[in-house]
Amino acid sequence: MVTQIISTMETQVSNGPSGTSLPNGPVISTNGSTDDSKTNLIVNYLPQNMTQEEFKSLFGSIGEIESCKLVRDKITGGLSLSPGQSLGYGFVNYVDPNDADKAINTLNGLKLQTKTIKVSYARPSSASIRDANLYVSGLPKTMNQKDMEQLFSQYGRIITSRILVDQVTAGISRGVGFIRFDKRNEAEEAIKGLNGQKPLGAAEPITVKFANNPSQKTGQALLTQLYQTAARRYTGPLHHQTQRFSMIPSLGKGPDPNNSSKPILDNLLNASYGVKSSPTLFPRFSPITIDSMTSLAGVNLTGPTGAGWCIFVYNLSPEADESVLWQLFGPFGAVTNVKVIRDFTTNKCKGFGFVTMTNYDEAAMAIASLNGYRLGDRVLQVSFKTSKQHKA
DNA sequence: TGCGATT
């Protein structure tokens, strides 16, 4: 049975900010420490391959960041070659509480590759909320998330819950789930009360125990997970050289314009690939090769000069902002930077912007899909950014 | 029909 890898990833959770809302500025408590409950956010369900830099770039587009951290695995990080595998969540602390609020409003629910990110206020860090996540197995297949919450809610406040579903049969329960309580002692009580018990009408007893903390995984489990994550990245379509470039002349064909009344993000998600190329496994073409080919075609591309592939987006509305570009391009792969060009005096978008993507394949896919895409009452024109200086 | 750089 194939199951969703995402479902096994542990994520951290949050509540709303504690206390009443206040105007701007950091709040200094009586003991001298700063209260960051209105500026500090937790971000869950980040794409596995998102880097600290991409994370900072995305949230930095909202406002000034006091600090941010993509949480990574200690064990793989300890192997010193890599920074450690992303655990799929992170924290962002803004300088201004208004920016934290804005980040929640504009970035919560943003689709990036195969994930839908969650942005919410972080609960203050405290020992009592740690290790409060439970793993439940043997659940009746008919039991849904709400039923499970009902069963567990007598023991405390539930922060999140989920039931794992089989991927190929589209949503049949695996009889396995997770329940996170607000406090560890609530989780302990739930184990005492429910482990080995039969839910009403169930044939078999359920097992309730503390969930594995991802940072406590064995080296073997981590290697397995790394392998699975890597394998998923490379299962997308590969194109040999001529196929790659034949994609460019076909740019006029974006998503069906007649279908543009559908929610944009739904269309994008269906069109997107979770493909990420590896320089080691699939060496990409050198900028020299690309330049010589595109010069023949009378087009100059800005190559992957360090940062990545720069994409020009034309026909944005005057109201467009960075989050629009993240939403449009994020589903196609790693985006390192977005920029809406504004008139300095009016602060309105001048009708165009730029997006930088790390990988050629993902950038080409984004262009092929988004060029000609109808955004509101406008039809976008999307292409690689041209080089003005050396244009023929 | 328009390709930044107020970091």
How does this model look, in words?
This protein has 3 domains: 5-126, 2-Layer Sandwich (Alpha-Beta Plaits), CATH 3.30.70; 133-212, Alpha-Beta Plaits, CATH 3.30.70; 241-384, Alpha-Beta Plaits. The protein has 12 helices and 18 strands. It has helices at residues 5-8, 52-60, 74-78, 97-107, 145-152, 184-194, 219-233, 241-246, 264-271, 287-296, 322-329, 360-370; strands at residues 27-28, 34-35, 40-44, 65-72, 86-94, 111-112, 115-116, 118-121, 133-137, 158-165, 173-181, 207-210, 309-314, 335-342, 349-357, 374-375, 378-379, 381-384. The strands form 6 sheets. The chain has a 4-stranded antiparallel β-sheet with strand order 4-5-3-8. The longest helix has 15 residues, at 219-233. It is elongated and about 70 Å long. The protein starts with a helix and ends in an 8-residue tail after the last strand. It binds one DNA strand of 7 nucleotides through strand 13, strand 14 and strand 15.
- The portion of residues assigned to helices is 25-40%
Please compute the radius of gyration using only Cα atoms.
23 Å
Strand order of the largest sheet: 4-5-3-8
Q: Tally the helices.
A: 12
Overall pLDDT metric: 75
CATH topology of the largest domain: Alpha-Beta Plaits
What is the count of distinct domains?
A: 3
Low-confidence stretches: 1-11, 15-29, 226-300
Order of helices and strands: HEEEHEHEHEEEEHEEHEHHHHEHEEHEEE
Envelope shape: elongated
What fraction of residues sit in β-strands? 15-25%
CATH superfamily of the largest domain: RRM (RNA recognition motif) domain
Name given to the CATH architecture of the largest domain: 2-Layer Sandwich
Straight-line N-to-C gap: 56 Å
